[in-house]
Write a structure and sequence with these properties.
The protein is built from eleven helices and 15 strands. The radius of gyration is 23 Å and the shape is elongated. By secondary structure, it is of the alpha/beta class.
Length: about 375
C-alpha cells in the first residue's frame, strides 16, 4: 500500500498550536505545526476524525502534488502526472484557487489555464462562477454537483496542488443563522474555550453573549457533541473515498454525546434582538435546554456556585461601540468579577490593552484576528482574597 499523502488542517492566525492539541486528542498523529496550520497523514481514518471532531480547524486540504516549475511547459508536464482522478469524478465541477509569490510563473489565470487540460482528462469541468461559493447561505448542505475546490500555491517556483476535503468552511456548523452585532466565528469561539481550559467541568458564564456563539460552543463541548457530526464533506464525493471510516467515526461520535451539560452555562445580553438570536441558534444546535439565557446588563449577572469560567468577547473597536470608549464597561466588570468570582478562570478576546482596563491578572495566550482586527486571547485566574 502506498504511503498516505499529507493533509493540512488550515487554521486562523495563531490557532495552529491549539488545533494540534485538539487533533492529538482525537487520536491523530501530527507531523508538523506552522503558521498555516497542522499537518498530518491523510489516512481515511485521520480525515474522518479531523472533519467530525475538530472544532478549531477552518478547512482541511489534502496534498496531491508538489513540484518545481519555472515555465509553463514544465508546469503542464507535471500536471499530467497529478492524481486528479482520486478527487475529481467524471462530470464533477472544479474550481481552481491559484496564488503565486516570488515565482517566475506569476500570472495566476495563466497558471490555471495550463492545469485545466489535465483536469479534463479525468472528466472534470470548469465550475460556473456561482458554483461552490464559500459564502453560500446553506451552512451544511453539500451535493455531488457542488464544485470541488483545488488549491494551487506557487512560492519560489515550487508548485503545491491540494484538494479541499471539507467543502463549506468548517466554522459553519449549520446552527448559526441568527446573528447579533459582530458575531464571532464558531472556530474562534472554540479556540477561546480551549485556551481557557474549559472542559465542561464547571459552570460557564458569557455576560456579553451577542448571538450566543461562545455559550453554544461551550454547551456542545460539555455534551461531547462533535462539531462536524451533522454535516457533509467534499471528500465524500471523491472517487477514492472509503466511506467506512467516516461512518464508524460518526457512529462513535453519536454514541459519545451525553444528555445534558453537567454544569450551568449562562449566556446574557442586554439587547432583546441578541436574546432572540441566542434562542434560535441554540434550538438549531440542540442545546437550548442546556443554556440559562438572561437579558440585562453584564455587570448584574449573578454567577452560579463556582469556581468556573467567564468567557466572553467584549465590545471593542468603532464597529462595535460606535466610537464610544468601552473602558468604563471593562473597569466595571473587572471590579464586579474581582468581588464575585475569586478563583474563576477568565478568557477574553480583544486588544491587549483590555487587560489593563479590567485590572485582572490576564496574560496573552495568543494573537489572532477577529472581524478584521488584530486581537489577543487574554486568559487568567481571578485571585482569591488573601
Amino acid at each position: 500500500m502506498s504511503e498516505a499523502p499529507s493533509a493540512l488542517a488550515v487554521t486562523a492566525p495563531g490557532l495552529a498550536d491549539l488545533c494540534a492539541a485538539e487533533l492529538r486528542g482525537l487520536g491523530i498523529a501530527v507531523s508538523a505545526v506552522d503558521e498555516a496550520g497542522v499537518t498530518f497523514a491523510a489516512t481515511a481514518d485521520a480525515l474522518a476524525r479531523a472533519h467530525v471532531g475538530s472544532a478549531i480547524a477552518s478547512r482541511i486540504v489534502v496534498r496531491l502534488a508538489t513540484f518545481e516549475a519555472r515555465g509553463f511547459a514544465e508546469l503542464e508536464r507535471h500536471a499530467k502526472r497529478v492524481a486528479w482522478g482520486r478527487v475529481v469524478a467524471a462530470g464533477r465541477a472544479v474550481r481552481l484557487r491559484v496564488t503565486s509569490r516570488r515565482s517566475k510563473l506569476y500570472h495566476t489565470d495563466a497558471i490555471a489555464e495550463r492545469l485545466w487540460p489535465a483536469i479534463r482528462t479525468v472528466g472534470g469541468r470548469v465550475a460556473s462562477p456561482s458554483s461552490g461559493d464559500d459564502d453560500a447561505d446553506d451552512d451544511t448542505a453539500l451535493a455531488p454537483d457542488d464544485a470541488q475546490l483545488i488549491v494551487v500555491r506557487v512560492y519560489r517556483d515550487v508548485v503545491t496542488i491540494s484538494a479541499d476535503a471539507s467543502g463549506a468552511l468548517l466554522h459553519r456548523r449549520g446552527w448559526r443563522l441568527a446573528t447579533a452585532r459582530a458575531p464571532m466565528r464558531e472556530t474562534l469561539a472554540a479556540a477561546l474555550l480551549a485556551a481557557a481550559g474549559y472542559d465542561g467541568g464547571g459552570p460557564l458564564v458569557d455576560p456579553l453573549a451577542g448571538s450566543g456563539t461562545i455559550g453554544i460552543e461551550a454547551a456542545r463541548r460539555a455534551r461531547r457533541m462533535a462539531p462536524g457530526l451533522d454535516r457533509a464533506f467534499a471528500l465524500e464525493w471523491w472517487p477514492a473515498h472509503d466511506p467506512a471510516p467516516l461512518a464508524r467515526v460518526r457512529a462513535e461520535a453519536q454514541a459519545a454525546i451525553v444528555p445534558r451539560a453537567p454544569h450551568p452555562i449562562i449566556v446574557n445580553d442586554r439587547d432583546a434582538g441578541a436574546i432572540a438570536a441566542i434562542e434560535t441558534n441554540a434550538d438549531r444546535a440542540g442545546v437550548r435546554a442546556d443554556l440559562d439565557v438572561r437579558q440585562g446588563p453584564a455587570s448584574r449577572v449573578v454567577l452560579p456556585a463556582g469556581p468556573g469560567w467567564i468567557v466572553t468577547n467584549p465590545p471593542y473597536g468603532k464597529r462595535i461601540t460606535g466610537g464610544d470608549d468601552p473602558r468604563d464597561l471593562y473597569v466595571s466588570l473587572g471590579r464586579v468579577w474581582r468581588s464575585a468570582a475569586p478563583g474563576w478562570h477568565v478568557a477574553l478576546v480583544g486588544p491587549a490593552a483590555v487587560a489593563t482596563a479590567f485590572a485582572l491578572p490576564l496574560s496573552t495566550a495568543l494573537t489572532t484576528r477577529n472581524g478584521g482586527l488584530a486581537v489577543a486571547f487574554l486568559t487568567g485566574l481571578i485571585p482569591r482574597s488573601p
